[in-house]
Write a structure and sequence with these properties.
heterotrimer; A mainly alpha (285); B alpha/beta (326); C mainly alpha (269); A: 285 residues; mainly alpha; 12 helices; 0% strand; globular; C: 269 residues; 13 helices
């Protein structure tokens, strides 16, 4: 009896295009993941609670500090500083950096083998799941924090038109891509080393320091500021810069740096992932 | 026209190289270590016809998991060729993926936090299946595998039996031509096992899905598989229809005798492994050495019996006999 | 429970901790990597604060020196609490996974069983880091012997506060399903405000963060006590340490009464 009624991609797309197949899978998985995330308000609220306390304490600290010095610091006002920090933590609420844990666990437990037998690219699968959940987590936090800050300290002065909104979206998305690529690159180290966690800590802390977490990049000493801007760690968090007075002026440079790092990481990942899959297929991982 | 063989394996071998770990001392990792080679699969060849149900078994470390991994494209062979559903698992892994289903009992392919119904949707996207078709097929599979009562529950909340049913159901969403099952009934209770086996048998009969099973459970093999391949030390040692295994490899018959008198001491030299509990006595008889009718005759003449049962050696014993002696 | 029994229980807890340690230290390379990795990990915050104070300068008698002492203090007490006592943080996960039962079945004091049930090697890195920072603080701030004495001895009640807050946060798992993440987040709510200069907190907020969510009791206030040689507050810290221990034990008893095993879901990922 010959096999009949195949429900494969060929039936749906009527094309042999691998790119389309992977894209369809990617966005579909992202959608399922995001919808599922939004169906768990308890978890979203719980994450918001932590963020609220973190940003709340920073709010108090900077209000205190700015009041004490009685002026703008490095051309940055209190409002800009707080929005910058809030944005950092809003993006952090996507938990994209935990792609490291997902991949690391897959490799260590051997679960990666169950995904490799599927027609979807392993990394795309993981990215889609993470992004979907991350966007779901971030959405609520973005709205809530923006409302709270908007109502308490207002939006910092400047032009915030449609062009600015598009620039914000672009720079944020590019930053998230860098985060995913960077953390998954170190996670792939699990194929060769027993414990890749320390590398996670190092990268994570570099992002914390250079990404403008507790101190906005604009407040850094000049040498560190330059290093932050041209490093992938800072580039992953350029969205924190959107309310700075010179954002429009620096936009092209910032996006240029991000695109450069994305290309570098893509090349590295293609190479490393290829070697990792080869290792899996030769040695069973 | 499709090839009648869905799996073709020729002279397949797999070697693993590993370095022996030297223990002790912080700097032990800097000491020179010896490289060793392990031949997990050693020159095996076999074909599987479309629609066949095959048990591919062996003791731990025999090379069966390694073989399955090669067939599904996870591992590349050191030597030999293989084709599954008309594709080379090594060079066409992604294309092959559309044609095969895999269920690894010890490792879940599901996303733990997703409800079952959403998992179906997810897999629909993975396999590029149209939304409507996914919905229809999901409902069908939910019914067949009796998943309705927990369809909205996340996978992590399911019991093992429920999870295994879900795993198998989802692996069939894209109607694969062949499904590879690695220990699918592990940890399940008897009823769950029975139901699962029945479902898989029906699947094979109705859809012609080829079943390639690895299991330590003889019940799975007996119930599901027409054919059994046994591997040990990387080589195929037996390749037979399942029903013939006992006839060929273990000619023991298992007798159960119920005595009328409890006090009778059971002594028949042709019987071995005699176990007496109250008035029930069980024993084994090697029928190649001692014709069964003669042994039974002897028992009937010597003892007053209420009842006597004669059974084939359980498949489990047959298999362990083969493991031990080949 | 009489004194002899308490000492016996503590001895067993100590033996279990030693065994946990030996177990972890077997993999020497991994051990070293985790400890040193954590030191590097913690040091990142020093840079962040350095940037902050270089932008703003000293704020209301709180300078970078005080921040060094604060960071060191929190790292040290966190490390002491959760190197050998990580079971306190791991409790919610245990309950969630249905593996709390084996602790209940032990013929030993439950509180100590919980605390010693897990060990976190990387937390030893926090201890090391804390001690390094203390060394730096002593070098730059030249505290007196009394101040050093106050600083070091307050590590005991603050470690207790850490442990007990972790246990109390975990207790939500006994009342709310899927509370593993929630309990971690609750602990974060307590922990996050501790890193900031305590002079930041005044009035009602200070009261809340000292007595109710004792974030500043574990670092900020001890640093102030050392800076100002405030003996009455030193005694208050000790009282808090003991008080939180009693409260956590009491709440644990209540929670266990309500305890129900959750499903153990077969093969774990």
């Amino acid at each position: 009896m010959t096999h009949h009624s195949r429900m494969s991609l060929a039936t749906y797309m009527n094309t042999d295009s691998r790119f389309l197949a992977q894209a369809y899978s990617f966005f579909g998985i992202l959608k399922v993941s995001m919808v599922d995330c939004l169906a768990h308000p308890k978890r979203i609220l719980s994450n918001f609670l932590v963020l609220f306390v973190r940003v709340g304490v920073m709010f108090a600290l900077y209000a205190y500090a700015f009041k004490y010095v009685g002026r703008n610091v490095n051309g940055i006002s209190f409002e800009i500083a707080i929005w910058s920090i809030a944005i950092y933590f809003i993006i952090l609420a996507t938990y994209l950096r935990y792609i490291f844990v997902d991949i690391n666990t897959d490799v260590v437990s051997g679960k990666i083998e169950t995904i490799v037998t599927k027609p979807v690219n392993y990394l795309l699968y993981r990215y889609a799941l993470k992004l979907g959940a991350g966007l779901g987590d971030m959405l609520f936090v973005l709205i809530a924090v923006s409302l709270i800050l908007g109502l308490t300290i207002g939006i910092p002065a400047g032009t915030h038109d449609l062009l600015w909104v598009l620039e914000v979206i672009l720079i944020t998305v590019l930053g998230m891509v860098i985060t995913l690529l960077m953390y998954s690159l170190i996670a792939l180290g699990s194929f060769w080393i027993d414990n890749a966690r320390p590398f996670f800590w190092i990268v994570d802390k570099l992002v914390l320091v250079l990404g403008g977490s507790y101190v906005p990049i604009a407040l850094f000493p000049i040498a560190i500021k330059l290093f932050a801007i041209y490093s992938p760690f800072g580039a992953s968090m350029f969205a924190t810069y959107i309310f700075n007075p010179d954002f429009a002026e620096k936009f092209v440079t910032l996006v240029g740096v991000q695109v450069m790092w994305i290309l570098v990481f893509l090349i590295l990942i293609k190479f490393v992932f290829g070697r990792a899959m080869k290792r899996l297929s030769v040695n069973g991982g | 026209m499709a090839n009648s063989f869905i799996v073709e394996v020729r002279k397949l071998s797999k070697e693993f190289s590993y370095t022996e770990k030297i223990s002790g001392g912080v700097f032990s990792s800097f000491k020179k270590r010896e490289k060793k080679i392990l031949k997990a699969v050693d020159d095996i060849s076999f074909n599987v016809a479309r629609g066949e149900t095959l048990a591919f078994i062996g003791p731990n470390g025999a090379g069966k998991s390694t073989t399955i991994k090669m067939l599904t494209g996870i591992l590349h062979p050191s030597e030999g060729t293989l084709r599954v559903a008309g594709h080379s698992p090594q060079t066409e892994r992604e294309k092959l993926a559309y044609h095969i289903g895999t269920v690894f009992g010890q490792r879940s392919q599901l996303v733990f936090n997703l409800p079952i119904i959403d998992s179906f949707e997810l897999f629909g996207y993975i396999y590029g299946i149209e939304r409507e078709a996914v919905k229809k097929k999901s409902e069908e599979l939910i019914e067949i595998f009796d998943l309705a009562q927990f369809r909205d529950q996340p996978v992590r909340k399911l019991s093992l039996g429920q999870r295994m049913r879900s795993e198998i159901a989802i692996s069939l969403l894209h109607e694969p031509e062949i499904i590879f099952l690695d220990e699918p009934t592990i940890g399940l209770d008897i009823v769950a096992k029975k139901n699962l086996r029945k479902t898989l048998t029906n699947l094979n009969k109705e859809k012609g899905t080829t079943i390639f099973l690895t299991s330590h459970d003889a019940g799975d093999i007996e119930a599901l598989c027409e054919r059994t391949i046994i591997v040990n030390h990387g080589k195929i040692i037996v390749d037979r229809p399942t029903v013939e295994l006992s006839n060929e490899y273990l000619t023991d018959k298992y007798l159960r005798v119920e005595l009328k008198n409890k006090s009778d001491v059971f002594e028949i030299p042709e019987c071995r492994d005699v176990v007496a509990e109250d008035n029930i006595v069980t024993m084994k008889v090697n029928t190649k050495k001692y014709p069964l009718n003669k042994v039974i005759g002897k028992i009937l003449r010597k003892y007053d019996i209420k009842d006597i049962d004669v059974n084939d050696a359980p498949l489990e014993d047959v298999i362990s006999h083969i493991y031990e002696h080949r | 429970m009489n004194t002899k029994k308490i000492l016996e229980e503590l001895k067993v807890a100590w033996l279990i901790s030693k065994m946990n340690y030996r177990n972890e230290a077997e993999l020497k390379t991994s051990f070293m990597v985790q400890v040193i990795g954590m030191v590097v990990n913690d040091a990142a915050f020093l840079f962040v604060w350095l940037f902050f104070f270089s932008a703003f300068g000293t704020i209301n008698n709180w300078s970078y020196n005080e921040t060094i002492a604060l960071q060191g203090y929190i790292a040290l007490t966190f490390g002491l609490a959760f190197s050998f006592g990580d079971g306190a943080r791991y409790l919610a996960e245990r309950v969630h996974n249905g593996i709390f039962d084996n602790l209940l079945l032990r013929p030993k004091n439950l509180y100590l069983s919980i605390v010693t049930s897990n060990m976190q090697i990387s937390a030893l890195g926090d201890v090391l880091y804390g001690l390094i920072l203390f060394g730096i603080y002593i070098f730059v701030a030249h505290p007196s012997f009394l101040q050093i004495f106050l600083l070091l001895t307050m590590a005991i009640p603050t470690t207790l506060i850490f442990l007990n807050i972790a246990i109390i946060c975990s207790l939500v798992a006994f009342f709310v399903p899927d509370a593993d993440k929630l309990s971690k987040n609750l602990f974060e709510v307590f922990f996050s405000p501790s890193f900031y200069p305590s002079s930041l907190y005044t009035g009602a907020i200070r009261f809340v963060f000292f007595f109710i969510i004792p974030a500043i009791a574990i670092g900020g206030v001890p640093v102030e006590i050392v800076r100002d040689v405030n003996i009455p507050m030193y005694l208050v810290i000790w009282a808090l340490g003991i008080g939180w221990t009693i409260l956590a034990s009491f709440l644990l008893k209540l929670a266990v009464k309500r305890y129900e095993s959750s499903n153990l879901i077969g093969a774990r990922e």
